[in-house]
Structure formats: C-alpha cells, structure tokens
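#structure-requests
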Amino acid sequence: MKDPRIQKLAANLVCYSVDVQPGENVLVEMIGTERDLMNAIIEEVGKKGGNVFVQLTDKTVQRAMLKNATEEMMKTWAEIDLNRMKQMDCYIGIRAGENVNDLSDVPEEKMKMYNSLYSHPVHSEQRVKHTKWVVLRYPNASMAQLANTSTEAFEDFYFDVCNLDYAKMDKAQDSLANLMKRTDKVRITGPGTDLSFSIKDIGAEKCSGQKNIPDGEVYSAPVRDSVNGTISYNAPTLYNGITFENIKFTFKDGKIVEATSNDTDRINEILNSDDGARHIGEFAIGFNPHILHPMKDILFDEKIAGSLHFTPGQAYEETDNGNRSSIHWDLVLIQRPDYGGGEIYFDDVLIRKDGIFVIPELECLNPDNLK
C-alpha cells in the first residue's frame, strides 16, 4: 500500500518546486537505496508530460571512485555529467544514504579536486544557474539517529516539515525580503558574537520550497569587504563527512583572518582552498517552525526556527557580491534562548530578538503564524 504522504511530496516536488512543463527533461538523482519516492516522482513527471531521466548513486561506490580518482578521470567525469546536465530543464536530487560519514576517510586533496573539478562546474555553475532544481533528504534510520529520535517519529517529523504549506510561507516571506532589499547595515550579536556588515544593493531572495525541501529562509549576501567582527556558530556541521563544532571566525574587511573549531587545522585547510573561501557568499535568516534543533544535515539545519547562517564561499547569482569559490559552506547560528539567545539589527533597528521577530511587519514569520 502506497504511503499517501510520499505521493503528496512527489506531487509537490514536481508540480510546485520545479513546476515541470510538457516536454521538459527532468533529471532525478537518488543518493541511496530508497525507491518509493523515486517511483512516485517518475509517475508525477509522467502525468505532467515531462521526460524523466534517473541517476542512482551509491556513496560507498562514490567513495571508492574518489579515493582512486586522478585529475584526468575527474575532468572526464565532469565533462560527461556536465553535458547531461546541460540537456536538463529540471533537477530533483534526493539524498538518502545510510551513513553520513561515508566520505570521511577520502583524502582531503581528493575532496578538493572533486569540489573544484566536478561539483563546481556540474552543480554550482550549470545545475544551480541553468535548471529549475530542488534538493531534499529522505527519512531513514541514519537520519533519525542524527536527530536523536526513533525512525517512526522522525518520519512523522519529516513529512510535517516537507509537506508544509509552502505557498502560504512564500507570501509571508515578502515582508522580510522587501526589508532586506532596503537595508544597508546589519549587526548580529549574541554569546561570542558581535558582527557587522552591509547588504546594501545586494538584494534578497525568498526560499519557500522551490529549491530546497524542507525550506524556510530569506537570503542575501554581505558586501564582500564589509564584514568585521566575530561570529561563534553553535550548530555542529558536517563537511566532507567530518563533524566540526564550536566554529568561530574573526573578520577584518571581509576576510576571515582567524578561524578556530574542534579541528582548527582542518578547518583552515578548507578555508585555504581558494581566496573566496575566506570571504562570505551568503547571509540568510531561517524560520521553519517545525525545525528546532540541529541534526548535522544542512538542508534541515539552515532552516531552523530562530537561526541564521553565514556562509563562507561561493555567492549565489541572485544575490551576487562577486565572491567566487569552489566551496559553499552553510554554517548555522541559532539565536533562541535555549541556544544562548541573540539579536539581529537592520540599520540600528532591532528586528529579531532571541529568535522571534519583534517588528510588526515580520511577525507573520514567527512560528505560531507559519504552522
């Protein structure tokens, strides 16, 4: 018997998130072994008159490929997949691997090569910029373990989050996006954090289920050289299968001049990948009412109610501050009282305190108004 929640999610992905039109080519990539959602998406694309193409990826096989990859092989791999991506109108990516640490023992130089020679041209430059795309996780025991819940409880949470009324959320986001477009100075304060920067003339973009599921953020980017001060992130994060905690950055004129964490040497290796890795490519405010605690899965964590993320690396084309990098690493600071609290100011006006919006035009984004 089919789970109606899966069919509803598939319909939302195809009809709302990427809005498949007759004759469009749709690439569906599944990383993992789950098939029910995959099959439901194929059915929904067929109903819309689209042409569906499938990529099945196994992380353990990918790990073996990366550990044995040469530069020539990586370039050829990227050329093949880039050619396919150029023929796609839509992309739906589902991540359902059983072990988030599968790539943790791939040598750092191999991961850098993968990020710069494969992921950057195929995904950052082609898929992100030239297709209608959405990416999501799929619930399994591994994700439930990261969230410290039972598998059944996590599935219930997952479908509450992913089948939220994103059209309603989209309308509520207008007020924040418009305010960000009018804002020059931003200041973020909290335990271990006092950070100032400008977002003048950068713009702002709403995220309400068209690119990510789950969703719930509005993003911009700092003027590249305007960031000064310190930020202390309080959500653990995974990068290339490695867990980082207690990350703290100090900025001078836009550049990360000091970076510490539970693995300070490794985090500085990542930030030394290229010049853009030590500058910020995204500033975003998260407010999904169902997501409250980090689970080391950035598609969920960056949407946590009362959070923000401040991202080293590549800027998005829609809010482009000119920063270019082979990395884009969303790092999350939660400002609710149970995580230490904190404030966000726009042009010296307090707009959010302890994770709750405090000016009338933004109250529509508080949790009770989005559920």
